[in-house]
Amino acid sequence: MNLSLKQLQEELKYDRTASCVQCGYCLPVCPTYTAFKNEAHSPRGRINLIKMAGEGRLTDLSALEEPFDLCLGCRACETACPTGVEYGEILEAARAALGKRRTLSVPARTLKKAMLRKMFPSRRMMNIAGHSTWIYQKSGLQKAGRITRVIDKLPYHLGAFEKVLPKPVSPLERFKAPKRVKAEGKRKYKVAFFTGCVMDAMFHRVNQLSIQLLARAGCEVTVVSNQSCCGALHAHSGEQKEARRLARQNIQAFEGTEADFIVNNAGGCGAMLYEYDRLLADEEAWAERARAFSGKVKDISQVLMACGLPDMRPRKGEAVTYQPSCHMTNVQKVTKEPVELLQSIPGIEWKEMNQADMCCGSAGIYNLVHYDASMEILDHKMKEAKRTNASVIITTNPGCLLQMKLGVEKEGLASSVRVLHLVEYLAEAAEIAEPVQ
């Protein structure tokens, strides 16, 4: 690929690196630098590589592959940066540029295309995934796989994650899920609920509890039928064209709802929806529509705080700690609402986790494609989680939920520590749902 230096600079977002003064404030908050102690795996190290490439001092872009592949994309560096470096844009541009130049095998290229373009954006395919998981667990296949240890031979360490999968709902329950739920009592807000792809396929129960909580709090909830995947996995994988297509589809789907808010319950999805205005900023026909959409995006914790929680049953003596979603913290800037919701539950013993904002190592599919690195980062997180002596760990993102469950399993704490989505715990306290064991 023959490009002029100016074209390469534009492709790599070289101009975004100018505000980085290499001060090092990003180092202590970067999970990969903390784990590996390698400057190339720090935000300023990666930015320096982009500067070198943009200035012609580095001509072999393959030198960028490992540093940018191993970046979790948690964007904690943006929160710590005193000069406002737009690291997220630099990261996505670098991955897109590397993706164009990387030669994948035919099977790998076919699998990537099938997953990102056919699987995640398709509600039908994600429903099939959910149905298949239910059949797998209910039919005896799961038990047989564990007894014969066949699951331990699955690629990408999928056997480890199989052990922490949530119990899926039945196809009938999924089919009967309501599209509109009236507010209980006086309506405070009219909201449109974003179900997500993985969230609705694997965590359908959490979605339904979210809708019930919103209704109990005074929201009229609409589930838009023609919504699609948020596009986060695509953007983080360098598939910018597909991410933009999905953004346009979702904007168009939600525009007709006349909702006060577009509510989500997954930190990673919420961050992507929140940044549709940035993603489509250079598309004249969509920029204003994207700004209007992003302006309505709210995490469920924000809406529940605005409405006020229903009465909560006391949880006497239950020690609770919180593992925040990186994208919810560093992109959406939603930090206090989940904590205040938890602390409002009578009787709980609140346990602040040290370095709570440090990434757990999930990061979309990072823990699948970079399992060893992910587990090293998770080990750091679990040291802090164990120090709290909490019996309940709360998360706000599906990837974090599975990752922390895996950490609890690895530490031999599964019989004494529960890992729950914030919505699940609030629903238990509001007596909307039975406790999850």
From TrEMBL:
* Note on how the cofactor is bound: Binds 2 [4Fe-4S] clusters.
Q: Which domain of life is it from?
A: Bacteria
Catalysed reactions, semicolon-separated: (R)-lactate + A = pyruvate + AH2; glycolate + A = glyoxylate + AH2
For this UniProt record, give its keywords in alphabetical order, as a comma-separated list: 4Fe-4S, Electron transport, Iron, Iron-sulfur, Metal-binding, Repeat, Transport
* Residue ranges occupied by any 4Fe-4S ferredoxin-type domain in the UniProt entry: 10-41, 61-90
Co-factor(s)? [4Fe-4S] cluster
E.C. numbers: 1.1.99.14
Task: Please give the Pfam families that the UniProt record associates with this protein.
Answer: CCG, Fer4_8
GO MF annotation, one: 4 iron, 4 sulfur cluster binding
Physiological role: Component of a complex that catalyzes the oxidation of glycolate to glyoxylate.
Task: Report the PANTHER family cross-referenced here.
Answer: GLYCOLATE OXIDASE IRON-SULFUR SUBUNIT (PTHR32479:SF17)
Q: What is this protein called?
A: Glycolate oxidase iron-sulfur subunit
Lineage of the organism: Bacteria, Bacillati, Bacillota, Bacilli, Bacillales
